[in-house]
Amino acid sequence: MGEARNILIIDDDEINRLILSDIFQPSFSITEAVNGEDGLEKLRKTNCRFSAILLDYMMPVMDGLECLSIMRNSGMIDQIPVFLITAETDGEVTRKAYDLGVMDVISKPVVPYIVRRRIESVIELFENRMRLQLTVNEQAEKLLKQSERIIRLNYGMIEALTTAIEFRSGESGDHVRRIHDMTAYLLHNTKLGDGFSDEDKTQIALASIMHDVGKIAISDAILNKPGRLTREEFEIMKTHTVKGAQLLSQIPQLRQLSAFKYAYEIALHHHEKWDGGGYPDGLKGDEIPIYAQIVSLADVYDALQSKRCYKEAYSTSQAIEMITGGQCGVFNPRLLSSFLEVEPQLRLALNWSRP
Fold it and tell me: I need a labelling partner for 10 at 20 to 30 A (CA). Which of 132, 188, 210, 330 fits?
């Protein structure tokens, strides 16, 4: 703000320029222009670094109102207070000047002490406003950086929690990363992502890693049982969907994140099936959010090819055959079609070394 104590006087009359210059020296340095066109050129060359512009109305080549109109359209008038100096008594000129954004209209012949007081007061107010805006912008930037740090911390805690759950169930922790990567790939590279912004897709992929967070409430005896679960045990295992959604809703920091809505619905509905044969709510068809369907498919696809305490790993071809053959429940035909279309490229893109 301190760099611009300079006033631009645009007037074709040399005597008028001299009178106005004398009023403001030595408090301000003075730049002179002989018409509107010359004034605009000096504004461009100095990148609008003036404390004020004193603009005559009647000038050859380009008059004051035309010059003012160009300054408004280019945004210059938002950066510098402009004063129209005129001998015109026509009220229409004054109205047009104010409509174009001029700060004040000063009549000729000018009265030096009045002109100085009016213009310096406006300059001071304008500079104070700009300083305040600069301070607000700096504070906003600091708050944004703090917010970003908090969000990164929250994301880190989420990733640590989900990875801990994977380790607890005897897995390497890579499962959630692969679910994230596969969800992101399908959203960005197939029609399944239609209607979602890039930010939505990022948030959905992040939310996908929390799909099994409810398993933290399932006992080790059931979670890591090497054999087939009993009917009663399976009913308990199924509760991880509801418990996961409840857990997520009880974390205040998470509720503030854009990913929360997606994380809640994915945790709750990633075991629903297209034909209504899933759980916990028996949703059918498009009642199931498409992002929950994507995570469901990604979860099954990865789980089939991973060694678990209760089974050996299947090959990729076996996994695809089981998914398309209905052995893992019924999936959305559109979802399956999009998945099968990109599955070979998906494995290459994500560098999954599966047979």
Answer: 132
- Select which of 215, 238, 261, 284 is catalytic: 215
Between 109-118, 150-159, 180-189, 282-291, the lowest mean confidence (pLDDT) is in: 150-159
At 21, which CATH number?
3.40.50.2300
pLDDT average, residue stretch 234-257: 88
Report the distance separating Cα 216 and Cα 309, nearest Å. 17
Kindly report whether the global pTM for this prediction surpasses the value 0.85. no
Task: Examine residue 154 and state whether it is found in any structural domain, yes or no.
Answer: no
Token pair listed for 91: 């009220």
215 is annotated as an active-site residue: yes
Q: With bands split at pLDDT 50, 70 and 90, how would you rate the model's confidence at 265?
A: very high
Q: Do 174 and 106 have their domain in common? A: no
Q: Which residues contact 151 (CB under 8 A, 6 or more apart)?
A: 257
CATH number where 224 lies = 1.10.3210.10
